[in-house]
Amino acid sequence: MLQLFIYLYATISLCWAATVSVHWDVGYLDVSRDGYSTWRAIGVNGKLPIPPIHVTQGDTLLLHVHNSLKEPTSIHTHGMYQINTDYYDGAPMVTGCSIAPNANFTYKINTGNQKGTFWIHGHYYGHLEDGLRAPFIIHEKQPVGYDEEILFYLEDWAQQTFEDRMSENDQKKPGQLPPFYPTALINGINGNLTQPIKFVPGKKYRIRVVSMSGSFWFRFSIPGHKMHVIEADGIDASPLEVAGLDLGPGQRRSAIITAHNSCEFNYLYNVTMYANFVKSLPGLLPRHYSGSVIYNPNSPYKVPIKDQTVWSNAIDMQAQDQTPLYPASRQIVWTVKERSLGYGIPYYSFKDYVYNQTNVPTLFTALTTGKLAFNSSIYGLQSQTFVVKHGENIELLINNPGPKDHTIHLHMMDYQLVEMGPLGNSEANSRTEVKFQKSPGPYPMRLDTATLRAFSYIKIRFPVNRGFVAIAHCHLESHMEHGLRATIVAAPDLLQKHLRVPQEATELCTMQGISVSGNAAGNQGFDMTGLPPAIPV
After folding, report:
1. In what helix (H) or strand (E) does residue 175 lie, and over which residues does it extend?
2. 170 near 178, Cβ under 8 Å?
3. What is the DSSP string of 258-282?
4. Is the pTM of this model over 0.90?
5. Is the N or the C terminus of the chain less surrounded, counting Cβ atoms within 10 Å?
6. Mind giving me the DSSP string for 302-352?
7. Alpha carbons 47 and 30: distance in angstroms, whole number
8. β-pair type (485-490, 385-388)
9. 423: number of CA atoms within 13 Å, CB side?
10. Which strands sit side by side in the sheet containing 133-139, from one edge to the other?
């Protein structure tokens, strides 16, 4: 059932931040979420979908996790800054260790000044696609500009586990996986069974849309209504009128829609699931879903003839807080590379090597190697680590010369999207619809997950104003798990000065025999003995 959340703050004043405790027992369950296939998914407390988590700005979420799986798991709160609490970020072997089978761990998520639309998901091999994902909404203390909220969370649901899908190698086409055509789930159920929403004439609605997808893109629209985007990835935006929302894996948007003053007609909301890495087939891809927008159950439906064509694009948006463009003091260039290692599965990289885990979590290496923490070699080639210094403003240019779309997520921060365009050669210009664009105003929109289309590039900027260790990766699960990741170690001197890892976080590692000090191999200095060799791309 659609979640309709009404928040009345006229008579309630929330003066004190609260601590919200949520208990997750992560385990297997056999389930048919699409109505066609039953397989062993991953749920919480014996159920899927996992209920959304709602808190208020300033609250602290205590997420108590017990791992009932037969393998490790880890939980990432997507979009949270985790200031001086990197060890709660949930990126295995980057900011800490995963949760071993039958073990427990509590993630302490201090929302601070953050508010908006987020989500929480598994960050261990394929767990996200297998069901371990839920919306996480941080409500404003005193929301203004709308009367009610309606939440849509969108998922792509395959016919088998992520691990089984990855093991099906297509030997006839080395470097490729067999195509798969998932079903879209809307608020946890098959999109063909999507539930109606109710509009009251004259009311303003905040529509929150979360793409909890592992591979596919979604488009959302309510034809016949004006839609103004007011948030992207937890950052407020100056209202921008669009015809619909376009979201890749990991992205979130909020839009304001004012209901018509009349109950004369009912309308439809539309959800389309699509991707460019599998062949389009009628009825399978793209897949179209519709639900009812009810003003009056007895009224006829009005379906606008003209298709929605003006989709939201973050480059067109401006940050409402009017943070000016960061002046770049250093540019780093990444290029998406793809290579088959002979197993049918393509492997990826942002630089020279396929990302692979090290013997020591990167955060612990940064904390325990003194001045050597400024030398990227200390983290191992396979971690693809870039060290940036306090006070720098980084411009990251990411080139994508290949035919597949990606979404680029950076943990622990948001960044300004300042430019995008085709790569500038004839092939790119003929094979991409991306046009050259810069941010149209002085306050570029900030995101934590940006779309990088095929044969194009993006430029993003962020300031190094604190110490942190962050993974950057494509948010298509198969791309991330097969190497399309890099690590950013920011201001390790500040990390060493201000961050103290609690005992329960180090015990996650030591109970699994994982070292919590030394270089990437767990040794001193530049001795990498025992570290598996890096794989070049």
Report:
1. none
2. yes
3. EPPS--S-BEEEEEEEE-SSS--BT
4. yes
5. N
6. ---SSPP--B--GGG-BBTT-PPPPPPSEEEEEE-EEEE-SSSSEEEESSS
7. 10
8. parallel
9. 20
10. 53-56, 133-139, 116-122, 75-78
Q: What is the pLDDT of residues 5-44, one digit of tens each?
A: 333 332 233 456 899 999 999 999 999 999 889 999 999 9
CA distance 456 to 472: 18
Q: Looking at residues 219-233, what average pLDDT do you find? A: 96
Closest among 120, 117, 172, 159 to 139, alpha carbons compared: 117
Please tell me the least confidently modeled range out of 86-95, 344-353, 438-447: 344-353
Tokens of 287: 């897949």
Please list the alpha-helical segments (H only) found in 372-467: 426-431
Task: List, in sequence order, every residue forming a beta bridge with 138; answer none if it has no partner.
Answer: 55, 116
Q: What tens digit of pLDDT does each residue of 277-334 get?
A: 888 888 889 999 999 999 999 999 998 866 556 788 999 999 999 999 999 999 999 9
Please give the mean pLDDT across all residues of the chain: 92
CB count, 10 Å around CB of 530? 10
Paired strand residues for 446:
416
β-pairing, 330-335 with 393-400?
A: parallel
What are the tokens at 310?
A: 């003006």
CA 348 to chain centre: 19
Output the six-digit token pair for 377: 């070699």
Question: Burial of 47 by CB count in 10 Å (0-12 exposed, 13-18 middle, 19+ buried)?
Answer: middle
Pair of tokens at residue 253: 């948007």
How far apart, in whole angstroms, are the C-alpha atoms of residue 80 and residue 60?
12
